[in-house]
Amino acid sequence: MEALLKLSDGIDAIVSRIGKWAALLAIPLMLTIMFDVIQRKFGGQGSIKLQELEWHLYATIFLFGVAYTLGTDAHVRIDLFYERMSPRWRATTNILGTIFFLWPFCFLVAFYGIDFAKEAYTLGEQSADPGGLPYRWVIKAMIPLSFICVLISSIGFMLRALNQRAP
Predict the structure, then answer these.
(1) DSSP assignment of the chain
(2) Does residue 79 have a pLDDT over 80?
């Protein structure tokens, strides 16, 4: 069990770094929004590139924040039932939910997301809006990458549950 706890701690450290990185993206997001608002207010018009950069940053924060939220056990669940369970049943629920629901979903999104991003790269996909951002594959690549991070985070989550389940 000691080796599993060390592995879980290592995964938690990685997930913590992911969460800090995602949180740091809030700074350029805030600055981009402020600059866009000021430009619209005093410059007379906004920038499509800035607006797209805003949603790219926000999406990245959200996508990678999911891994961090799972790693810190702060994700959404049906507390109506979960809170009334014993610690062993909670751990069992977490293990089964991870194996039968979370992992298949992560594998599905990561697998198809890689092709989704690869196709955008191959086609040289860019914004449909004139004056928008090029390289649409970058934001599309964040989708499978973030779900790989959720998968890594879920391993630490499940190892903690296994530890709680142990007698």
Answers:
(1) -HHHHHHHHHHHHHHHHHHHHHHHTHHHHHHHHHHHHHHHHHHSS--HHHHHHHHHHHHHHHHHHHHHHHHTT-----HHHHTTS-HHHHHHHHHHHIIIIIHHHHHHHHHHHHHHHHHHHHHT---SSTT--S-HHHHHHHHHHHHHHHHHHHHHHHHHHHHHH--
(2) no
The pTM (predicted TM-score) of the whole model is: 0.89
Please state, as a whole number, how many other Cβ atoms lie within 10 Å of the Cβ of residue 67: 27
Phi (first) and psi of residue 124, to 5 degrees = 65, 35
Burial 79-118 (b: 16+ CB within 10 A, else e): eeeeeeeeeeebbbbbbebbeeebbeebeebbeebbebbe
The residue whose two tokens read 């790989």 is: 148
Question: Looking at residue 131, what is its pLDDT?
Answer: 87
What tokens appear for 41 in the block?
């207010």
Query: 136: pLDDT confidence band, cut at 50, 70 and 90?
Result: very high
